[in-house]
From TrEMBL:
InterPro entries membership: FAD/NAD-bd_sf, FAD/NAD-binding_dom, NADH-Q_oxidoreductase
Protein name as annotated: FAD/NAD(P)-binding domain-containing protein
UniProt keyword Transit peptide, yes or no: no
Record-annotated FAD/NAD(P)-binding domain positions: 4-312
Record family assignment: Belongs to the NADH dehydrogenase family.
Key words of the record: FAD, Flavoprotein, Oxidoreductase
Keyword rRNA-binding: no
Pfam families reported in the protein's UniProt record: Pyr_redox_2
UniProt cofactor(s): FAD
Length: 411
């Protein structure tokens, strides 16, 4: 009788977990011993890093043909309950039908979601975000509707709440998405620096891009209230706007709270170097659900596809290896890169945890385009997918070198 690997989620980590598990089973010629089952609302990958761009409805990739060819099963639904003690989950379908699925190994790859602080009045009713495909499409429809409204300061002002990675990419992309002329874009950030989590390295470049794109920014300015026509800052300043977009802060899926194990401040499960939850040997966490060390210097995986993809490869490999009696692969990702899109201004690429600026301008922009439009998409070809599911780590600097070579040749 085959053993079941159950994967929750078809984000980057979930997709590559499934492919890596299948890869190992194929390599050792024991595919009939494993059933790989993935649960998610749809058999598709939402290309979440691109949701700051226009045409959000197109930012997904169907997984059905690839999963079918690979022999990976998909159940359409949402996991509501994880019973870690008896190795089962409760799944609810779109129609409301409930079913229980048991597992031999569970890979939690259900990602993360944006946090809307309860102390900010009106945030749930009046703030947009780009955290999901539906949310990004809702924002896009709203932006397109602005031109039909009477001219006013509120109509012609967009406020991006948060000057982190997502907020900066969205703010710098907005000038070419605006349906009305002379629209003002303002970024508000509670911290005293732009890109607080990005460090000082790229900050002068970010500031230059915002200034040249005529984007205002207010630092040290926490938001206290949002309504249909304005936002209010802690200073008491009120900014008229019909478009407040919340981008500040994410947390791991609430499903992590159903597993009685140690977590970090982002609700991510603390895992060992094989991505297993120490108190539950049958459960692995990966992607945005895992607080995982990436080196011996005290650095941990970020909530980004840069780490989710290789983590998925390792978690899928290890779940299969554990059941098949094959060697497990330790997770590591000893180099780090930052590739920040700055809209029409260009892109800034930093390498290393000190985030030293390496590339800006047109070349960097082409690198970002290659990453967004090609590199992070799952391949349609099964043989190529099996090759890319190799859990061995690739050095980020070497990867950037390959991408640079590819975009230079293409140019």
């Amino acid at each position: 009788m085959s053993k079941r690997i159950l994967i929750i989620g078809t984000g980057f980590a979930g997709v590559w977990s499934a492919l890596a598990a299948k890869r190992l089973a194929k390599q050792v010629n024991r595919e009939d011993e494993l059933e790989i089952l993935v649960v998610s609302p749809k058999p598709s990958l939402v290309v979440r890093p691109r949701l700051y761009e226009a045409n959000a409805a197109n930012m997904s990739a169907s997984l059905e043909p690839l999963f079918k060819e690979a022999g990976i099963k998909h159940v359409q639904g949402i996991v509501h309950i994880i019973n870690a003690e008896d190795n089962s989950v409760l799944v609810k379908s779109a129609s409301g039908e409930e079913s229980t699925i048991t597992y031999d190994r569970l890979i939690l790859a259900a990602g993360s979601s944006i946090v809307r602080p309860k102390f900010i009045a009106g945030i749930n009713e009046h703030a947009f975000d780009i955290d999901s495909l539906n949310a990004a499409a809702k924002l896009e429809a709203h932006l397109n509707s602005l031109a039909s409204l009477p001219e006013s300061p509120a109509r012609d002002t967009i406020v991006v709440c948060g000057a982190g990675f997502t907020g900066i990419e969205l703010a710098t992309e907005l000038p070419k998405r605006l349906p009305t002329p002379n629209t003002k874009i303002i970024v508000v950030e509670s911290a005293k620096n732009l890109g607080p989590e990005l460090g000082p390295g790229p900050r002068p470049v970010i500031k230059q891009a915002l200034d040249e794109l005529n984007i205002e920014y207010k630092l040290g300015s926490p938001v206290t209230a949002i309504n249909a026509d304005s936002i209010t800052l802690a200073s008491g300043e009120r900014i008229e706007t019909k478009t407040a977009i919340w981008t500040a802060g994410v947390r791991a899926t609430p499903l992590t709270q159903q597993i009685s194990a140690s977590k970090d401040f982002l609700s991510r499960l603390k895992v060992d170097n094989h991505l297993r939850v120490p108190l539950y040997p049958s459960i692995l966490a990966t992607g945005d659900t895992a607080h995982a060390a990436i080196d011996k210097l005290g650095n941990y995986a970020m909530m980004s596809c840069q780490h989710a993809i290789p983590m998925g490869r390792v978690s899928g490999h290890n779940a299969a290896a554990d059941l098949l009696g094959e060697p497990l692969m330790p997770y590591s990702h000893e180099s780090y890169g930052t590739c920040l899109d700055l809209g029409a201004w260009g892109t800034v690429i930093c390498l290393g945890w000190e985030r030293e600026v390496k590339y800006t301008g047109d070349v960097a922009k082409r690198v970002k385009g290659f990453i967004n439009q090609t590199l992070i998409y799952p391949p349609g070809d099964l043989e190529q997918a099996m090759g890319l599911a190799d859990p061995l780590p690739e050095d980020s600097e070497r990867l950037f070198g390959r991408i640079l070579e590819a975009v230079t040749v293409a140019a």
